[in-house]
Amino acid sequence: MEIERKFLVKKENLPENLEQYPCKVIEQGYLCTEPVVRIRKSNDNYYLTYKSKGLLAREEYNLPLTKEAYEHLKLKADGIVISKVRYVIPEKDGLSIELDVFKAPYEGLLLAEVEFPSEEAAHAYQPPSWFGEDVTYSTEYHNSTLSRKNIN
């Protein structure tokens, strides 16, 4: 079960020296958006992911792929293949902030996600001051939605 909250972040509010934190270069495409079936390259690791419906909490299953299988499925992705850099920033109470810095065509979009052990912990969470609007309950900022947007 994935239980997470998601927040917009403004560039001027970013923590200093992001490069001090571990990061992953991520590329992901969607084979289906209802239910969500995604392929992802994370550095040199490849996955096929299934996600159930939901906003705050939803089932998620990750299966390993080979590079060849990923490249084959990437050609079948619907819409935009999303590219981003994900920084993992330590947070209070043993949590981690995953800060996604998107590349073109979403350059400038910054999303912070925090995963929780329970829905109660998610509801009780007080985000740091550099977080912006809470978009947890908005499907507009799901990567699966972003992959289908018309970019001109």
From TrEMBL:
InterPro entries assigned: CYTH-like_dom_sf (IPR033469), CYTH_domain (IPR023577), NeuTTM/CthTTM-like (IPR012042)
Classification via SUPFAM superfamilies: CYTH-like phosphatases
CYTH domain ranges (all copies): 1-152
Residues at the active site: Y30
A Pfam family reported for this protein in Swiss-Prot or TrEMBL: CYTH
Superkingdom assignment: Bacteria
SMART domains: CYTH
PANTHER family: SLR0698 PROTEIN (PTHR40114)
Protein name, as recorded: CYTH domain-containing protein
Organism (species): Blautia segnis
